[in-house]
Amino acid sequence: MAAEVILKLTICFLALMVGVQGGDPYLFFTWNVTYGTISPLGVPQQGILINGQFPGPEINATSNNNIVVNVFNNLDEPFLLTWSGVQHRKNSWQDGVLGTNCPIAPGTNFTYKFQVKDQIGSYIYYPSTALHRAAGGFGSLRVHSRLLIPVPYPDPADEYTVLIGDWYAKSHKILRGFLDSGRPLGRPDGVLINGKAGKVGVNQEPLFTMEPGKTYKYRVCNVGLKASINFRIQGHKLKLVEMEGSHTVQNLYESLDVHIGQCFSILVAADQDPKDYYMVASTRFLKEVQTTTAIIRYKNGKGEASTELPPAPIGWAWSLNQFRTFRWNLTASAARPNPQGSYRYGAINITRTIRLVNSVSRVNGKLRYGFNGVSHTDPNTPLKLAEYFNLADKVFKYNVIKDEPEKTTTLTIQPNVLNMTFRNFVEIIFENHEKSLQSYHIDGYSFFAVAVEPGTWSPEKRENYNLLDAVSRHTVQVFPKSWAAILLTFDNAGMWNIRSEIWERTYLGEQLYASVLSPENSLRDEYNIPENTPLCGIVAGLPKPSPYTI
C-alpha cells in the first residue's frame, strides 16, 4: 500500500514537471495489454485485450481532469495508444502516434499523463501501431462538464456508451500481411456493437435497459476500420445533442450516419410500449451491407422485439444532406462558461490555404495511398524527437508537398511534414477524386467543418461556407468526387498527425504531420519533453536539450 502511495506521489510530481495541472483532480489507471482469444463473429481469433477486456476499459473523466494511464505492453510487438479527439494542449508528447512517440517495446511500460483541458464530450482511444486496431485495444473516454457549467439539456436517467464498427475475422497479423504484400483488406466480415454481433430473431441478453418515461444519453462512436455505419433504434427518435466535443442544435433523427472516428451523443426518450427493441448498426457505401443488432429492454417490459428492422438510408446524398443539418449550439456553454458562439471564427482572416488531394497508386507493384503525390512513411526516429533534438535534417524534410497540389498520378514514399506558422488561421481543403468515401482527422485540434460539397473546390466556393454555426469537431467525412473545407487556428504547439481514419489507407501512407513551432521556445506555448519519454532511433542515448523556461 505504501509503495502504491509513493508511486502516485511520484507520478504527480512528474506530471507537474510536464505541465498537467496540479490543482485539478487526477485519475490513475494501470492497463495490461495482452493477447486473448475472442469470438465476436462466432469464430475464435486472436484479439488485443486491456485488463482482459474487449473492448477496453472506459475512462470516465470531467473537464480539466488529469489522466494518468500506465500501459504495460505484454504483446510480442511494439505498441502505442492514441487518444482520438483529446487535444493535449502544448503536449503532443502524449499523442501516442509514431510521429511523436517511440512505441512501447514488448515487456515494457509507458505512462501517459495528459489533461482534458477545456474539453467535454465523447471520445475514443485505440492502437496506432501495426494494424493493432483491427484486433481490439480500443475503448471510450467520456469527458463530463464541470458542475459549474450548465449543460443544455436535463440530466439523463443514465448514460450508455455504444462502440460500433466493422470487423474482420482474420487476425491483425494476417491483415497486415495483406497490406504489406500489396493487396487491400477487402470488405469486412461483419459489424460489432460493443464487441458483439447480434442477429435478428436470435435470443440476446439486453445490452441496455430503459425505464418508461425517462430519457437516456447514448454516446455512439465508430471504432471500425473501413466502413461508415448507420445507427438507429427501432421505434425511437434520436435527439443529437453533442458531437466530438461540441454541443449541437438539438435536431431529431430517425437514424445517424456515423463515419469512422466520429462520435455523437444522443438523447433517447423511453416513450414507447414497454418491451424489447433492436438497436441496429449497418454498413454504408459498401457493395454488401453488413448489419448487426443489440437489444434495448424496457424495465418490466413484456414482449420481444419486432423482427422488422427500420430500413437504412440509401446513397450518399442522404448522408450529405444530414451533414448540412448539423449546427453548433451558439448559446450553449461547452467546457468554459462563455457560450460557444462567442468565438466568431467567420470573422477571422484566412492566412493560408492548403489543398490536400488523396490518391491511390502502386509503388514497386504494391498498393499505397497518399496526399498530393506523397505517401507518408514513419522513420525510425519519431519526427517530434528529431525536431526537438535539432536533428530534423537527418530524418525528414519539411514541406515536400506544396499547398496547391501538382497534377500527378504517382506517389513518392517519404515522411510528409508541413510547417505551420504558430497561431495562423488556416483553411484546409480535403479533395476526394475517388469513388469511395473518406474520413479525415486532425490530432491536437478541433476545427470548423464549414462545407462538404460534391465536385471540385475553387475559391468561389467560399461564398457558400457556413461562417456562423459550423460544428467545431475533429473528424470530417468527404464523399466520393467531393470536397470538404475546414478552418482552424494552429495555436497548439507540437507535432500533430493529419490522417485518414480508414486505417488501411493510414497504414499505407495517407497521412502527414503538421509541425507547429512556437518562436519563443517557452513553457507558455509548449511543455518540455517528459522525463519518462523513451528515446529511439538516432536520438537514443543522447542528452536531452536544455529545457524550456517561462
Automatic annotation (TrEMBL):
The keyword Nucleotidyltransferase does not apply. Residues 1-22 form the signal peptide. The keyword Glycoprotein applies. Residues 32-146, 159-300, 381-520 form the Plastocyanin-like domain. Keywords: Glycoprotein, Signal. GO terms for molecular function: copper ion binding; oxidoreductase activity. InterPro entries: Cu-oxidase-like_N (IPR011707), Cu-oxidase_2nd (IPR001117), Cu-oxidase_C (IPR011706), Cu-oxidase_fam (IPR045087), Cupredoxin (IPR008972), CuRO_1_AAO-like (IPR034273), CuRO_2_AO-like (IPR034271). PANTHER family: MULTI-COPPER OXIDASE, OS01G0816700 PROTEIN. Belongs to the multicopper oxidase family. This is L-ascorbate oxidase homolog. It comes from Gossypium schwendimanii (Cotton).
